[in-house]
Write a structure and sequence with these properties.
Two copies of one chain form a homodimer. The first copy, chain A, contains nine helices and 13 strands. By secondary structure, the first copy, chain A, is α/β, with parallel strands linked by helices. Chains A, B: GO terms for molecular function: glucokinase activity.
């Protein structure tokens, strides 16, 4: 009888690594979900795959040395068009990678089983497995940061679309709007990303930059100014909320989501974002499912935790997608 | 050893029934996919579940008497908000049903295992299993008829969203547009359904109706007039194509579809629809996947065939969703 029982899943920790344009964030996560070690390093200025993946390899070795138990696997989250099934970064926009076989390269470098994931889908997995969307069947998580991405769970499965799913930030809201980095005009990300809110406020107020050219304000600062009665900030904030409501309404109409989770820099505004987006979304919906809009629970660590979950799922041969 | 082998799937035919606002269409489909009998009856004018499901039961018994082999199962496709997993029509708009346990009622009436499906998702299953989208991983089928619905396959699975997925016809294209039956303004269905094309042409030309008030023209007729140089027809057709391109671009951006299949009355225009919609869609896309746009292969029988496939899948306990 015992020969037919599956082997017990490996009990050691897995590593999760989130490779962003600015930081490589990493954590070792025990089988019970506890984070047993953390590490953060700047992403190397040279963005070629060799340099960045070498830095990831170094982060992995440092974390391995910090945890007493044998590390079982590695999950890595990267932004862009990420084909999880093949472990390939088809296009990692802010890193400049094209068709990079990240999983194979890191597996060769570390000797670990490696699962590659998309940063926003990884964050979605974290919120869906451990956070505010735990156990949901039909969930949409949108991160509102440098850009806007979405992770979508439908019928209890993560949607991948061979890497192309979830590009909510590039749904067009205003065809006559500002040029987007993707080449189109008026994408949601040009109005409602944290970056766009800061930029649009600066455009209205004549700029608010540090002497070195970096923005002096965060999206949260713009939100606070809006609340304090600054009309330029209020207009920019209202535009962002309205565009989010409209684009989320379309997404909810085609996905049938029961829960919308908002994360990223813009969501740091908390109730000043969540309530108005809920109201704007509700105004667009008639017979459709009316999802609750909530704030992500996990903050900036969701990508790392999601990457670790992807690593463990691959190890247990129970992929989440 | 043999005790561990699954039982052979039942070899007899299954019935597929597509319950529309006008017609109840049905077919008996053999295990090899061949249609061995067909039947069509008007949908009863009284739309209450008892009357309509009684008519469905009568269609089932008539078909059973026509096929020599034992009928194994029944698949039924209904429009609206259809919860396949529970077998419940949450809201069947043009039939007026609410929370009707269709699968249980028909199973009790016929003694057959019954799978309930959504009409457009059933059509999508038929094209995906047997038709122009056969074997695709990421497919979007849109039917352009009385309204507009979509069936979506993502990662080789049909999306259901607890019944709420795929309401492409109610994505808003023009917030200042005409009132939609759903209560919103400017839904895609108010511009690009077959019904809308006929209505909008009649509005521009002072009406083109038979003496009894029914439209004298089909959407295909409007397409032909547009091709012949009728400016009103050309304007209405261009609006429909443009709205479809824009809404499909948003859908492709969030689903990552590799193939878009167009069916329903509007697709009878063939190349006059497909090429222009492909061009309009392509204009909206930048880095996204660029799906091919093709015409549905199965025509008006796709709902029936899809319903039969759902019936057989349930029987074999290999659900397609």
């Amino acid at each position: 009888m015992t020969t037919n029982q599956p082997a017990a899943p490996p009990a050691g920790p897995v590593l999760g690594v989130d490779v962003g344009g600015t930081l490589i964030k990493a954590a070792a996560v025990a089988a019970d979900g506890e984070v047993v070690a953390r590490l953060e390093r700047p992403t190397p200025p040279a963005r070629d795959p060799d340099t960045v993946l070498s830095a990831v390899g170094s982060v992995v070795e440092t974390l391995r040395a910090q945890v007493p138990d044998r590390v079982e696997a590695l999950g890595v989250a990267v932004p862009g068009i990420i084909d999880e099934a093949r472990g390939v970064a088809v296009m990692a926009a802010n890193l400049g990678w094209r068709d990079t076989p990240v999983a194979d390269l890191l597996s060769a470098a570390t000797g670990l089983p490696v699962a590659l994931g998309h940063d926003v889908r990884a964050a979605c997995v974290a919120e869906w497995r451990l956070g505010v969307a735990k156990g949901g069947s039909d969930v949409l998580l949108a991160t509102l940061g440098t850009g806007i991405g979405a992770g979508v769970v439908s019928g209890g499965r993560l949607l991948v679309g061979s890497g192309y799913a979830g590009q909510l930030g590039h749904t067009v809201v205003d065809p006559d709007g500002q040029r987007c980095s993707c080449g189109q005009r008026g994408c949601l990300a040009t109005i409602a990303s944290a970056t766009a809110v800061v930029r649009r406020y600066a455009e209205r107020t004549g700029g608010a930059e540090h002497p070195d050219g970096t923005p002096a304000l965060s999206a949260r600062d713009v939100a606070q100014r809006a609340r304090a009665g600054d009309p330029a900030a209020a207009a920019v904030w209202a535009d962002a909320v309205g565009a989010l409501g409209r684009s989320l309404a379309i997404a909810v109409t085609v996905f049938g989501s029961e829960l919308v989770v908002l994360g990223g820099g813009l969501a740091l505004a908390g109730d000043q974002l969540i309530g108005p987006v809920q109201d704007s979304l509700d105004e667009w919906l008639t017979f459709q499912r009316r999802p609750r809009v909530v704030r992500a629970a996990m903050g900036a660590e969701s990508g790392v935790l999601g990457a670790a979950l992807l690593g463990r799922a691959a190890l247990e041969e129970t992929p989440v997608t």
